[in-house]
What we know:
The protein is mainly α and 148 residues long. The protein has a domain at 122-148. Helix content is 55%, strand content 9%. The chain is built from 4 helices and 4 strands, in the order ααβαβαββ. It has a two-stranded antiparallel ribbon. It has a two-stranded antiparallel ribbon with strand order 3-4. A hairpin with a 6-residue loop joins strand 3 and strand 4 (133-135). Helix 2 (12-46) packs across helix 4. It is elongated. The model has no long low-confidence stretch (mean pLDDT 84).
Amino acid sequence: xxxxxxxxxxxxxxxxxxxxxxxxxxxxxxxxxxxxxxxxxxxxxxxxxxxxxxxxxxxxxxxxxxxxxxxxxxxxxxxxxxxxxxxxxxxxxxxxxxxxxxxxxxxxxxxxxxxxxxxxxxxxxxxxxxxxxxxxxxxxxxxxxxxx
Length: 148
């Protein structure tokens, strides 16, 4: 059973998939940091000092009464919240990852189409009478002497 598992795990597709998952997880962490730490703070400043990670709606107050200054304070008080700011950050992260994947696939498709050679222009045709191959510009078959 161990040998069978080893054979399965060492196949090219499984190893490639594992590498893709690991790189994808690392890329996701980079994009999350890009959104949370680089993109959203300037956008928040432009919109009047809004911190998107702390935008939330209170559905039900917790043990201590509102107002809650941050999402963490509201959750610590036991309030039921809708954290739409975190959702907005996740949507931005998703769009960045989706665009990066689109650009990767687009580049791979360009490479693939460049590698494919255009179909060769035919230089021969068949004589309709004797079915032998003759040059495409021939007006008469050299084998059966039929006019084409």
